[in-house]
Structure formats: C-alpha cells, structure tokens
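User: quick one, fold this
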Amino acid sequence: RKNLWFQWKVPSSPTKPYRTRTKRRREEITAVVTASHRKKRTATRKKPRRNKMAIIKEVRGFTPKIGDNCYLAETAAIIGDVTMGDNCSIWFGTVLRGDVNSITIGNNVNIQDGAVVHTLYQRSKTVIGDNVSIGHNATVHGATIESNCLIGMGATILDNAVVASGCIIAANALVLSNSKLEPNSVYAGVPAKKVKEVTPEQ
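Assistant:
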C-alpha cells in the first residue's frame, strides 16, 4: 500500500509531458499579455512636443508683419496691425494687440514675459523705437517710446505719453496720459516723476 500511495501521489514519467505542455502554455499566455501591454503603453505614450509657433492672427484685414531674425515664444500673441523690425524677441505670455489701431516696433526690441501692448480706437497708436527693453508684465497703451529706453517690470505707460530717448522707467511706475518725459532721465513713482539724470554707466 505504501508503494502504491507513493506512485499515485508522485507520478513519474507519464506526467512529465503534461507538465511541459502546461509550462509552455503558461509561457505563451505570458508572451501574449506582455505584447498586449507593450502595445497599450506605446499607444498611450505621449508623443514628443513639436516646436509650436506663436499666436499670430489677422484682424480687420491686418496681418502682423514680422522682421528678420525675431524670436517669438510659443504663447506670445501678435494680433492685427503690428509691424515689427529685425532682431526682436517677444517672450512668453506677451500680447501685442493691434486690433483697433497700429503698433509699430523698431529693431532690437525685447518685450518680456506677460507684457501687454495695446492702443485706443482712432485716438492713440503705439510706437516703439530701436534698442528698447520692456520688462515683465509692463503695459504700453497707445504711447510712444523712443529709442534706447528701458521700461521696468510692471510699469504702465498710458495713451499719447512720449517716453523720450534714453529714459529709464522704474518698476511699477505709472506714466500718465499725454506726459512728455525728458530724454536721458530716470522716472519712478505713481504718477511717475523725474528722479535723476541717466548716468553714462546706466
């Protein structure tokens, strides 16, 4: 009896092919599941992002005109009657909206993240000269900024104001409408007032 029990409990050679088939079947199932999983991962895997263009839109028949060698960030918006010179950079979140009047930008102009340039309908245009830098979140609304100026972060230049050549507008300053600033001067405050002359180092 003991020997019979052992043979029944632990079969010898007849079960080996069965075990081999079971193992082989298990490997086949595993291979199918693995291939299916890889296929799903490939299908759901995010495709590499392509370089996107800035938002450039025509408004009222006006299409923006961009000069040579300009950098336009992906989320910058350039809309309508906008004319831009060469070697300019328009950074992320910047809006140049020439929907109701024209915006003219010279060469070597840097308009940084979050800045807004706009105009008034039939009442003011924006003109920006050469070699101008406009800081983050600044607003230029229907004003003239002559060449070689620096507009600080968060500054606001209102309609028909004229920022003369060589001026520095401090951060968060407010230049009121119709203001005529002196050249080569530093302006700060709300409303902006002349603080000092621009030094050669500046």
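User: anything notable?
Assistant: DSSP finds two helices and 18 strands in the chain.
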